[in-house]
Every structure is written in structure tokens, then in C-alpha cells.
């Protein structure tokens, strides 16, 4: 009598009973999911280009439904769909051999990646297997994975022979395991992996989340098969990103899809689109004493997170345990970022609207839509003796900081923008250096110095005495090292502007690098940079509480990347997202306000409303 694998029977019994206590907490080790190892093209023959769509996307497994008719193996979904031209040889065997010859050394993929064909028998197993075996006998070496490292593995599913008949067939054939079959140890060697219909565990449609009992049953099955050293595939699953993500969290080895290109994109970007927090920062709890709809501000701090929409905001909050300094704020609104000439803005038009109170065309800096110069907040406020400053971890000539001092029709005119500093009433400018200042023996830098600016390098070198001084501080000319500049320079900037200052100040602070994360579809940059920006928010709220006369405004010039947060975990700070573009979107962005006058910035506003309200509040 054959020896039955008792461990396997026990595990399957536990799954069938729905026992969740024993295995529900089994943790699948975190591993990297790859297209070349974890993807299965379900009913591949229904693709517009069978085999080649999956192959072009480097899929690890391809499913083929086969019918035996008059000693021919046809590929079709039903017997009625059979087309004499669509045989197993023409659709799959010949393309496999062609790719092996093209790539040399019998490799189906150039880089040596592995491929398996899951042949689903739709007609009686024994005769169909005998026909298949006979047709492949002359080509056996291309499918002999035991002796050929580049061979394509053949896995038989559907009306496959019974387990006690495995040994009757060439050992190039492996078999799709069934969870209700008691395999012997020898039979288990011929089982490639285990498949099960997801409907056996749940009625879930792939939207929202699988109910917990169903999720536990599914996870138990996965864990039980892994305990046997085998891999798992579910079939009949909803073909959604939500379902793929659920399978990844369960540790399902082969992700089943009818959309190979979409799944390949999802997995190829998965590691880049998954964030794991290394630490969390403590948030500041405001006193809300000045946040009472009663007073008027003396100082205004405008914090602009370049490229951050609500998704970036909440991705950062998730990574920080569900809380940010920004989430402590009670006055909440939204800002429409559209440019004058387009639904979607760039940083130049977006920042110009927030600096001047007028919407303008994309790429314009401090210029109206018809090409005329328009005054910015520092210029308007200087008439009342109010000092202004600009702090950015972009270069000084970047689109956002320059919108608060320059007037140009093109944001890339760095030399002209740099020279405009000599005509600006700004008291403080901190940001990255631009080589335009050094052109022609420092001509522009000397012009700026001659206008009254003192120039320093490094925040630590800012002068202690600020009264009547006008200062430019270049951090360095390597933007990659500027990422934390605003964190380090905020306190010094506020100290500089507020010392011996009875009339108040306006300070614009830009967190510029969130935008870079959106343009490069790099979730880590988006989250890390927003977390850095949030630390500045905490500093601003704390200063506002200590001062009692400071209004803090927090918003963005636009959203970049079209980030969608697919999944997250507040406890361990993980976030899974996906980007829909590498460009700006037209989405409105959050507008948060704290302190005297905050009530004026709630609801839905245009970005150009912000400076109008700022000027009016400071005027009063």
C-alpha cells in the first residue's frame, strides 16, 4: 500500500474545517514579487497575441486550454470555438522554439528567465496526454527541466490523470495539485504547485476588502501548501489591483491575470511604490489660543509643498502612524490650482498666483496673462514696512521662490530672474545657488550686492543682528543635499525677520522636492519630503503659539504624479501606491490655516485668493 503524506492530509483537513486559530497568524516572509517569477497569464490564448503578449512582459507562467480532436491538439475556450489554425503547436510550441533559437543556448528569455506552460486538458485526460506526449517526444529536450536549466516546464491541469497515474507519463510533465487529493511522497514530487478556485473560499468581487473569515480561510490554504514546500495559485479571482495586493499580502506565489501588460507594470513598479517607515516623528499639539476667529495677524507664514496633493499628504500621514503636524489643524479648505491658460498649472503660474493674486499663464513668473508686470506680496507689503523672506530647498531662481521677487515671461531665464533680486524689497532669501550669479565674473552677484544685499554661504553664517539688514544665503549648488534645508533654516529665518520688528513679516517657505518624487514616480521621495515639510509645519505652529500674532497657511502649488494610495498600515508605517502620470495634474490641493484670520481660508478657494486675503489681513 502506498504511503500517504499525513502532514498534507492534516493541513487540508484544517483548511476544509475553516479552522482559523491554528494557522491564521502564520506570517509569510516579506519577499520581492517579480514579473518573471510570480505572474500567470490566465487563458492566454484569448489575448490578441497569444504567447507574445505574456512573453513580451516576461511572464513566468502561461495557461493554455487544449482539446483533442482527431489526433490534433487545438487551443480554445470551448469546443465550439475551435479554429483549425489555432493548434498547440502553432500558438505555443513553435513560438517557444523560435524564441529559444533567437536567444541562443535554448533560452526562452534572453536573460535566462524561466517559463512554464500550464496545459489545461479540456478533453479526456488519458488520451489527450498520450497525444501530447507523442507530439513532444521529438522536442523533449526543450521541456526537460531536470537536465536542461533553460527548459520550459510543462504543468498539466484540468482533466489530468489521477495521481496514481503520474508515473505512467514522461517525467517532463508535472501536475497541478488539487487540495482534496491525498498525494504520496513520490506523487508530490510531480506536483508543480497547487491551484484552487477562489470561489471555494469567498464570494469577494475584488473591490473593497475580503471579509475576515474568508481572508483567514484563504490564508490558511496558502500557508498549508507553503508548509509542504509548494507554491500556490488561485484561479477565478477578480482581476483588480486590490485583489493582486491582497494575494501579495497572503503570499500567493502566482498572481492570476487576464491583463498581462497591466500586471507587469504594477509589479515592475511595486517595490518602488512601496514605502516602509524607518521612524516616526512626534507631532506638535497646538494650543489653539490664537486660532479663535477673533484677532488679526501681524505675521504670516506661507508654507508651500511643491507637487503635493491630498494623496501625498495622506501617504505621509500613514507612514507617520496616521498623524502629522498638519493633521492637528482645524481650519481646512481646498485651492484650485488651474492656470489662466490651462486646466493644469506649472509651478511658475501656480506660485505667481499665490504671490500676486492673479492667475497667469504657465511658465510666467510675476507677469500677468497679458504680459504685464504685476506686484507680488513682498513688493506690496514693503510699502507698509512689513519685511518679507523666501526660504526654499530649490535653487533661489526656481519657479516658486522667484515668483515672489521676479518678473519674467519664461521661468528658465535664470540669469534675468537672478538679476531681478537687485530690484526686490525682500529682506531674506535662502535657497540653493545658481551658476547664473557667477557668469561674467560674478556680474549678477555683484549687481545684487550693490543693491544692498549681504551675501552669505551656509545657514550657520547668517548674521545675528537682523535690523535693517537684507540677506541672501546660498546653501550650496548641489540640490540633492538641500532636501533638509528648510528644516534647518526655518528657525533662523523667523528669528531674522522678527528680531526688532514691530510691523510684522511675511515668510514663504517651499518644500520643493516632493514634486521631484511625483515626476520620477518615486513614492519614497514623495513621503520623505512631505515628512520633512511637516516638521517645518510643526515649527511654524509652535512659533505661532508662542507669538500669538502669526497666521500659518499651508498649501501646494499643484499635485504631481496622480498618486493613488492603494494600501497602508498605520502601525508599521507602510504605504503601497501607484502613479497615474509623471506630470502635474489639475487636482485641487489642501489649504490649511492656523492662527488669527484662519477662518478666511476655509472652503473652496482659487489659489489667487490667498495673497488677496493675506494683503487684506495685514493691511487691517
Task: Summarize the structure in words.
The protein folds into 2 domains: 266 residues, TIM Barrel; 339 residues, 3-Layer(aba) Sandwich (Alkaline Phosphatase, subunit A), CATH 3.40.720. Helix content is 31%, strand content 20%. It is built from 19 helices and 24 strands. Strand 2 and strand 3 form a beta hairpin. Helix 14 packs parallel to helix 15 and helix 16 runs parallel beside helix 18. The longest helix has 25 residues.
Short structural summary:
The chain is an alpha/beta fold. It is built from 19 helices and 24 strands.
What brief labels describe this structure?
620 residues; ten-stranded mixed β-sheet; elongated; TIM Barrel; nine-stranded mixed β-sheet; alpha/beta; 19 helices; 24 strands; disordered N terminus; Alkaline Phosphatase, subunit A
Ordered list of secondary-structure elements with their pairings:
Elements: H1 6-16, H2 35-38, E1 39-41, H3 52-56, E2 61-69, E3 72-75, H4 88-103, E4 116-121, H5 125-136, E5 153-158, E6 173-177, H6 185-188, E7 191-197, H7 212-227, E8 231-235, H8 241-250, E9 255-257, H9 260-268, E10 274-276, E11 299-305, H10 310-319, E12 331-336, H11 347-356, H12 377-382, E13 387-395, H13 399-402, H14 414-420, E14 428-432, H15 439-450, E15 454-457, E16 471-474, H16 485-498, E17 505-511, H17 514-519, H18 523-547, E18 550-555, E19 559-560, E20 563-569, E21 574-579, E22 584-585, E23 589-594, E24 603-606, H19 609-619
Parallel strand pairs: 1-2, 1-9, 2-4, 4-5, 5-6, 6-7, 7-8, 11-17, 11-18, 12-24, 13-14, 13-17, 14-16, 15-16
Antiparallel strand pairs: 2-3, 10-21, 12-23, 18-23, 19-22, 20-21
Helix pairs in contact: 1-7, 10-18, 11-19, 14-15, 16-18
Amino acid at each position: 500500500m502506498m504511503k500517504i503524506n499525513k502532514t498534507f492530509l492534516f493541513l487540508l483537513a484544517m483548511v476544509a474545517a475553516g479552522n482559523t486559530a491554528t494557522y491564521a497568524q502564520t506570517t509569510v516572509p516579506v519577499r520581492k514579487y517579480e514579473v518573471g517569477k510570480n505572474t500567470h497569464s490566465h487563458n492566454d490564448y484569448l489575448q490578441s497575441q497569444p504567447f507574445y503578449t505574456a512573453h513580451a512582459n516576461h511572464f513566468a507562467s502561461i495557461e493554455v486550454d487544449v482539446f483533442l480532436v482527431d489526433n490534433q491538439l487545438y487551443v480554445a475556450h470551448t469546443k465550439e470555438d475551435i479554429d483549425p489554425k489555432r493548434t498547440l503547436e502553432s500558438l505555443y510550441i513553435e513560438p517557444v522554439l523560435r524564441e529559444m533559437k533567437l536567444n541562443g543556448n535554448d533560452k526562452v528569455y534572453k536573460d535566462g528567465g524561466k517559463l512554464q506552460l500550464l496545459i489545461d486538458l479540456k478533453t479526456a485526460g488519458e488520451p489527450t496526454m498520450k497525444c501530447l506526449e507523442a507530439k513532444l517526444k521529438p522536442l523533449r529536450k526543450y521541456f526537460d527541466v531536470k537536465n536542461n536549466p533553460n527548459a520550459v516546464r510543462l504543468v498539466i491541469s484540468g482533466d489530468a490523470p489521477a495521481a496514481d497515474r503520474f508515473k505512467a507519463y514522461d517525467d517532463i510533465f508535472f501536475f497541478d495539485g488539487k487540495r482534496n487529493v491525498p498525494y504520496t511522497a513520490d506523487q508530490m514530487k510531480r506536483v508543480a504547485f497547487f491551484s484552487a478556485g477562489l470561489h471555494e473560499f469567498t464570494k469577494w468581487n475584488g473591490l473593497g476588502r475580503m471579509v475576515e473569515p474568508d481572508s483567514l480561510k484563504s490564508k490558511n490554504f496558502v500557508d498549508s501548501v507553503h508548509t509542504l514546500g509548494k507554491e500556490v495559485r488561485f484561479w477565478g479571482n477578480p482581476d483588480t489591483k486590490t485583489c493582486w495586493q491582497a494575494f501579495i499580502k497572503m503570499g500567493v506565489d502566482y498572481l492570476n491575470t487576464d491583463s498581462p501588460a497591466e500586471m507587469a507594470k504594477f509589479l515592475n513598479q511595486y517595490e518602488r511604490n512601496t514605502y516602509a517607515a524607518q521612524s516616526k516623528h512626534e507631532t506638535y499639539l497646538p494650543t489653539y489660543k490664537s486660532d479663535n476667529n477673533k484677532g488679526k495677524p501681524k505675521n504670516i507664514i506661507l508654507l508651500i509643498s511643491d507637487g503635493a496633493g491630498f494623496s501625498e499628504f495622506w501617504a505621509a500621514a500613514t507612514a507617520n502612524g496616521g498623524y502629522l503636524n498638519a493633521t492637528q489643524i482645524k481650519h481646512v479648505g481646498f485651492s484650485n490650482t488651474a492656470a489662466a491658460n490651462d486646466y493644469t498649472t506649472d509651478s511658475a503660474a501656480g506660485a505667481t498666483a499665490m504671490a500676486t493674486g492673479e492667475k497667469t499663464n504657465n511658465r510666467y513668473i510675476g507677469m500677468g496673462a497679458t504680459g504685464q508686470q504685476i506686484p507680488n506680496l513682498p513688493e506690496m507689503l514693503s510699502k507698509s514696512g512689513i519685511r518679507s523672506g523666501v526660504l526654499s530647498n530649490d535653487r533661489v531662481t526656481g519657479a516658486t521662490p522667484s515668483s515672489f521677487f521676479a518678473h519674467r515671461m519664461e521661468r528658465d531665464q535664470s540669469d534675468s530672474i537672478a538679476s531681478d533680486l537687485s530690484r526686490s524689497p525682500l529682506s531674506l532669501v535662502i535657497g540653493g545657488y545658481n551658476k547664473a550669479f557667477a557668469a561674467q565674473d560674478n556680474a549678477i552677484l555683484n549687481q545684487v550686492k550693490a543693491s544692498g544685499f549681504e551675501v552669505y554661504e551656509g545657514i550657520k553664517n547668517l548674521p545675528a543682528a537682523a535690523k535693517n539688514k537684507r540677506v541672501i544665503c546660498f546653501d550650496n549648488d548641489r540640490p540633492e543635499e538641500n532636501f533638509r534645508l528648510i528644516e534647518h533654516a526655518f528657525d533662523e529665518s523667523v528669528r531674522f525677520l522678527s528680531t526688532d520688528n514691530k510691523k510684522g513679516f511675511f515668510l514663504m517657505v517651499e518644500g520643493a522636492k516632493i514634486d521631484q518624487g511625483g515626476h520620477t514616480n518615486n513614492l519614497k521621495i514623495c513621503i520623505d519630503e512631505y515628512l520633512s515639510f511637516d516638521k517645518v509645519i510643526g515649527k511654524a505652529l509652535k512659533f505661532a503659539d508662542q507669538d500669538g500674532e502669526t497666521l500659518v497657511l499651508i498649501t501646494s502649488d499643484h499635485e504631481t504624479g496622480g498618486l493613488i494610495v492603494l494600501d497602508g498600515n498605520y502601525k508599521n508605517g507602510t504605504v503601497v501606491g501607484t502613479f497615474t502620470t509623471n506630470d502635474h495634474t489639475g487636482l485641487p490641493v489642501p489649504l490649511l490655516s492656523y492662527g488669527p484670520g484662519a477662518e478666511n481660508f476655509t472652503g473652496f478657494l482659487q489659489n489667487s485668493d490667498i495673497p488677496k486675503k493675506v494683503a487684506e489681513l495685514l493691511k487691517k
